[in-house]
């Protein structure tokens, strides 16, 4: 059993804590919102802590779930409690391992992690970067995998690939919701009631994702199954091709990637 602490119990921190509730690990946490900590204590057996330094003192694995702009000050406040036996796990976007090590005094290993928002319902996709974190054992790696495996898939990546992951998967839910909104608006424009259109589009995306996940055939084949010769679907797809929809999507993800690179500088 590991002692795992959370500095920050907002949406993502809370989701991970709830996922770990039946893991048998000892979970500690603190947040500026005491009501969130108290709720997690009632629901999940979280051990409440008064301050970040208390979490660090009590735990071996410390998940840093605070906003990037608050990270440097927070790490400075807990630095006296850090030692070689501690493992820092950051889910803050854009903050490199090098920065995190510098801000924490370089006395303990740092693992950089990037989850996405479907983790809130246990269907997340998380990238984990162990990098050159000397002192990280295979047992440590297994604990990190378990923490984030509690809320979905875990993929190990090199730190150089985290910006690409952020652009495609970290930001990806927003792209999906954007497209869903457009589909709903199309249905409303064609005369369907908004509530009905919303329910149908949600079911459309959920069913299509389930088919893609369970069927095993290539996405192109699944698309072709819907695309009859001279039918309605091919007309829509040809319009998307003529207007460069695929290229616009690729360019949009590229813009997100470049912005992620800027954050890391």
Topology:
Layout: E1 3-7, H1 11-19, E2 26-30, H2 34-44, E3 47-48, H3 52-58, E4 61-64, H4 68-78, E5 87-90, H5 97-103, E6 110-114, E7 124-129, H6 138-149, E8 152-156, H7 162-170, H8 172-189, H9 194-215, H10 219-226, H11 232-242, H12 245-263
Parallel strand pairs: 1-2, 1-4, 2-3, 4-5, 5-6, 7-8
Antiparallel strand pairs: 6-7
Helix pairs in contact: 7-12, 8-9
Biggest pleated sheet? 8 strands, mixed
Which value, in Å, is the CA radius of gyration? 22 Å
For the largest beta sheet, what order do the strands appear in spatially? 3-2-1-4-5-6-7-8
Low-confidence stretches: none
CATH class of the largest domain: Alpha Beta
Report the mean per-residue pLDDT as an integer: 94
- Molecular shape: elongated
Name of the CATH homologous superfamily of the largest domain: NAD(P)-binding Rossmann-like Domain
Reading the helices and strands in chain order gives: EHEHEHEHEHEEHEHHHHHH
**In whole angstroms, how far apart are the ends?**
38 Å
Structural class: alpha/beta
Number of strands: 8
């Amino acid at each position: 059993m590991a002692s795992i602490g959370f500095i920050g119990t907002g949406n993502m921190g809370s989701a991970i804590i709830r996922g770990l509730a039946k893991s048998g690990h000892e979970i500690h946490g603190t947040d500026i919102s005491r009501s969130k900590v108290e709720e997690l204590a009632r629901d999940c057996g979280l051990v409440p802590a008064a301050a970040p330094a208390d979490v660090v003192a009590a735990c071996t694995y410390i998940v840093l779930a605070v906003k990037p702009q608050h990270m440097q000050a927070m790490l400075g406040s807990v630095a006296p409690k850090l030692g070689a036996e501690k493992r820092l796990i950051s889910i803050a976007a854009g903050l490199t391992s090098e920065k995190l090590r510098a801000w924490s005094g370089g006395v303990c290993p740092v693992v950089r992690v990037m989850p996405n928002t479907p983790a809130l319902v246990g269907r997340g996709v998380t990238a984990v970067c162990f990098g050159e974190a000397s002192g990280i054992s295979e047992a440590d790696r297994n604990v990190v995998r378990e923490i984030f495996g509690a809320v979905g898939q875990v993929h190990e990546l090199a730190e150089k690939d985290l910006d690409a992951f952020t652009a495609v998967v970290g930001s990806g839910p927003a792209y999906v919701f954007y497209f869903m909104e457009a589909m709903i608006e199309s249905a409303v424009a064609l005369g369907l009631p908004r509530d009905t259109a919303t329910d149908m589009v949600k079911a459309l995306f959920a069913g299509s994702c389930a088919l893609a996940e369970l069927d095993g055939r290539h996405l192109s084949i699944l698309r072709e199954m819907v695309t009859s010769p001279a039918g309605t679907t091919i007309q829509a797809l040809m319009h998307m091709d003529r207007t460069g929809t695929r290229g616009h999507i690729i360019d949009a993800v590229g813009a997100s990637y470049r912005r992620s690179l800027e954050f890391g500088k």
